Amino acid sequence: MRRTTVLAVAVVALLLAGADAPTTAPATQPAAAAAADLNALQGTWKVVRAVRNGVDMTDRVGYGQMVVQGNTSSVTRDGQDHETDFELDASKTPRVITFITPAGTRFQGIYELKGDTWKTLYDKAGLPKSFDDPGVLMVYERVKVK
User: Which of 25, 38, 57, 86 is the most exposed place for a label (fewest CB within 10 A)?
Assistant: First the structure.
């Protein structure tokens, strides 16, 4: 009987100790993760790999670097600057990126950000479910500031 009472008191104490612990509401966790990802994406990225439906296109991308400022990515291709806005959704697995062209066209892809490597996969026909799906795979590495 004494063992049961001690165990019950320990469980109640643990529950009460956790009652005052600060928590992040579940709805804000993906928003916080997306904000953290957006913050981590700021800066200059070098194209290290580009594959379209299994065919390496790295040499034909037309740009070597991309700059991310806020939620806008900028590249210079053929002497002209091109900007595309994007939105991040960290509530999905894999995480989703929505590209917004200057004309307002929206298309979705998936992304993965691990340290200084950023990977995206998109297919204008629909949202990829994994990085094994067909589409345009882009792999970038962060350009270190010296």
Answer: 25
